Amino acid sequence: MHRSILRFTRTLLLPLLAVGLILTGCDSSGSNGDDPGNTPGDDPGDDPSAFAYPSTTYGEQTVVNLLAFDLGVRASNASDNDAATFDALYTGNADDRTIRAVPAQNISTEGQSVYGDIATGVNLADLTSDDVLIRSDQLEEPDSPNAGSLVNTDELLGFYFQEAGANDVGPATSNGFVLNQFAEKMLLGTPIYGKGAAILSDFADDGAVSSGDAAEQWDAAFGYFGFPRALEPFLDYANGEEGLASGNALDVDDNGSVDLRSEYVHTWASYAIERSAAAANTDGPSPDFARDAFSALVDGREAIENGEDPSAQAETALDAWEEVVAVNVIHYINSMKSNLEGVSGTLEGPQGDSSGDVGEDAWGEAKAFAWNLQFYSDQLSESQLQTLHDRIGNDPPYGDLTADDYTEDLNQANQLLQEAYGFSDDNVAAW
Q: pLDDT, tens digit, for every residue of 159-168?
């Protein structure tokens, strides 16, 4: 299959950093990972049998995930956050700042109250890819620092953080770009998905990485994906909210606090669970992105420890991750189509506190996740990615298209993704 020409080069694999997602609970054989000998207060790192995944050496990747979440939340309420705060979180000066996920989730994380408790000096701006964003030269002045020219993720995010923090723009630009959606979701593309996928792609192609310790590189990919070290205790596809049994934090080892590296489901892992749960409740096939990726990551790490080739496991985890990105585009396209039901005539922008008839949050997430796919895709060519962005558009098409015309564009975008990934009609409708 074609691998995107925009994929990260191997030289970008080495400075691997931060991300820990939020899931817990199964070993590679499918048990829940509970170990009766693991008493409260024990360090799970001293008893690998307590968790399926054997390592927590991905603190930097955990911080990357947590910072992306933090910046997204702050950009949604710009008036409460100044430019210096955005700059500190984005450029590596957040070590002494409170981890936003802790008070937000109202959980106890003993020893992990500020970012520096997990890893220090994590600089998101230095980690993002320099690749220019597809069709970013089509963005208009309210949405780009250099309208009419191609820009990269760092340039666009720096502009949005300035707009939110210094100029008090928000929650959206005058064209309908919702700043918090782009703040978080674009960081999910680069560095998080881009760097994690680049590592796994190296393993899938060659069975190893070009330099560095293989186990450390694999751990970094695991951290970027954001799974906890055990999975099953978190899952409830039949009855849980969005596929989670009881939220994204769980004290698996029963020591009285949650470890944000081991016992928390971060964003990509959470999406994998949610999209798997939706598929499980249809009459069609039930792809289980979360279990497939998690099991492959656990088994691949074991293969490395045993001196075996982890390429097959890397390919499985990588395929599942790419499919989750594509499904997210479908999901938010579906949200827009739902918003457009019953709308007639030319689309109109926001009235008062509304978000217009398209739904600006959904448009922003579809656009950002479509950009995510350019940082790794084994299924889409650059031409197909261009077409996908053309159908989604450069901003919510207020005053330009009728509801029927835009719905047809969105149908074509969904069809492109469905055919490329072989998704069933039932699942596409459910997502």
A: 999 988 888 7
Helix axes 179-187, 360-372, angle to 10 degrees: 20
Query: 3-class DSSP state for residue 231?
Result: strand
DSSP 376-413: S-SS--HHHHHHHHHHH-SS--TTT-BHHHHHHHHHHH
Q: Evaluate whether 44 touches 229 at the Cβ level (below 8 Å).
A: yes
CB 405 within 8 A of CB 357: no
pLDDT for 35 equals 29
Question: Under a CB-based contact definition with an 8 Å cutoff, are residues 62 and 19 in contact?
Answer: yes
178 backbone dihedrals φ, ψ, rounded to 5°: -80, 115
CA-closest candidate to residue 250, choices 34, 30, 19: 34
How crowded is residue 248: how many other Cβ atoms within 10 Å of its Cβ? Answer: 25
Query: Hey, is 76 helix, strand or coil?
Result: coil
pLDDT tens per residue, range 185-224: 999 999 999 999 999 999 999 998 877 899 999 999 999 9
Q: By the 8 A CB rule, do 174 and 142 touch?
A: yes
Q: Which amino acid is at 132?
A: V
Contacts of 106 (CB under 8 A, 6+ apart): none
Q: How many whole angstroms separate alpha carbon 321 and alpha carbon 319?
A: 5
Cis amide bond preceding 36, omega within 30: no
- From the centroid of its chain, how far is CA 185? 6
User: Which residues make beta-bridge pairs with 98?
Assistant: 114
The pLDDT tens digits of the residues spanning 96-109 come to 999 998 877 788 99
Cα-to-chain-centroid distance, residue 382: 21
The stretch 133-138 carries a mean pLDDT of 98
Q: Is 128 helix (H, G, I), strand (E, B) or coil?
A: coil
Task: Identify whether the C-beta of residue 289 lies closer than 8 Å to the C-beta of residue 323.
Answer: yes
CA-to-CA distance for 22 and 119, rounded, in angstroms? 17
Are 377 and 385 in contact, with CB atoms under 8 Å apart? yes
Q: What is the pTM of this model?
A: 0.88
For 22, list phi and psi in degrees, rounded to 5: -115, 45
414, 331 Cβ separation under 8 angstroms? no
Judged by phi (left if over 0) then psi (alpha if -120 to 50, else beta), residue 120 lies in beta
φ/ψ (deg, to 5) at 74: -65, -40
Cα angle at 56 between 50 and 58, to 5 degrees? Answer: 155
- Measured CA to CA, the distance from residue 195 to residue 2 in angstroms comes to 18
For 24, phi and psi rounded to 5 degrees? Answer: -150, 155
